[in-house]
Amino acid sequence: MSSRFDIIHKDTAGRIGRLTTPHGVVETPTVMPVINPNLQTIKPSEMRDFGAQILITNSYIIYRKDELREKALQDGLHALLDFDGPIMTDSGSFQLSVYGEVEVTNEQIIDFQQKIGSDIGVPLDIPTPPDVSFERASQELDITIERLQAARKLVTGDMLLAGPVQGSTYMQLREKSARTLSETGFDVYPFGAVVPLMESYRYADLVDVIAASKKGLDPSAPVHLFGAGHPMMFAMAVALGCDLFDSAAYALYAKDGRYITNRGTYQVNDLKYFPCSCPICQKYSPEELRKAHNSTELLARHNLYVTFEEIRTIKQAIWEGNLLELVEQRCRSHPRMLDALKQMYTHSDWLERLDPASKSTFFYCGPESAKRPEVLRFASQLDRFTIRGSALIRPSPGKMDSQYDNVLIFKPPFGAYPQELAEIYPLNAEVVRNPDYESLEQAYLNTIKLVELNPEAEFTLVIQERFGHPLLKKLEGMNNVKVIYPQGE
Predict the structure, then answer these.
(1) Start and end of every tRNA-guanine(15) transglycosylase-like domain (predicted)?
(2) 331 carries a ligand binding annotation
(3) What is the b/e burial string over 240-256, where b = at least 16 CB atoms within 10 angstroms of the residue's CB?
């Protein structure tokens, strides 16, 4: 694994990192605005004003157009785009996925990207779409891996080389692809052919693709989620371990009159007020923007401002250790994103291994929080508690405490734990006063496990009426448990 990527802070599988390129250091997570060499809605030289550190453009488009190709070969890619920071170049794989063929070989496009001074080059992989046959996905993956391994030998200068992970919607192929490429050694690992999943709102499937690919990689490897440009899903993707995104959405949406927010997209024609305080939204009302002669450019500028605002919000959440709270908030913006959140927590056992053990405060944000990695970790560590003699389990300390050898606090979704740990993360959790079914389910399962691990202890479980749950019957039937329901206490 290359040492050009340094991780400086982590939360869940997300991280703040620094990627060193020939034209400077890029702090991740971040977005690479897509620059069309033929048509620029916003000049590349202005991109730093929005927060962009790195751009991405298409070397195949430059290669095919004589004027662009000659200027890039003579003056370099950075002069062509008038941008002095890092630039990543795609290889033509997108055109291959759309048109079925391209007029360039893998060797030619790698050579061209090196000659024009690309900071991160991409081989000509095959972006296999979702839901094709396993045989096709497997055959195309073999070709992709062969091309990538050949490309690795062709790069002789400072250019970083990306190794796109493919495999369609077959998780075993995604993991195989990632593991093979990780063993070969690349500088950045894009996850390719995921745009169709996002376009059809198949975010739950996208979660599985990311997780399977990440499980095959060196966990310290930088990851680029190809074609992911909407801020609504950045937080979730970062929490799963993605570091780089590329956005053509800021410009494409603007051409269609679409106004991006971190909760979704609006048609600007439907807006009476702008729910944003970026420079564009402060200067123009929706009506004024619609009438402006450069309305497409103005809308693209807003879309970029809100895109990078979300990146900064995510970085701060990582720094504070509350990324998952942000993810749960964002995933409630659309039903399919909520599906993705539920699917993400089916991978909590993997996320738990990457998640820091100590943070600030656990905030319970809804039923899905009961499946968070911290709750899973607590359940796996219950065998560390040795309970002897009598033990009282109650929602909070009270007047009966002195009668017992041990006092445990019952707090969903964790269950029972020694009150001495009440201020330790994650048991310092801020939770709702009236627990939901899922929270109680996990809390009672953990409490049952704790009782079973300490068969010699005698437990008294104080239950307030609002804590009623079917699992109480199992607790009541255990030999060393007494359940009481106080009235008016």
Answers:
(1) 12-335
(2) no
(3) bbbbbbbbbbbbbbbee
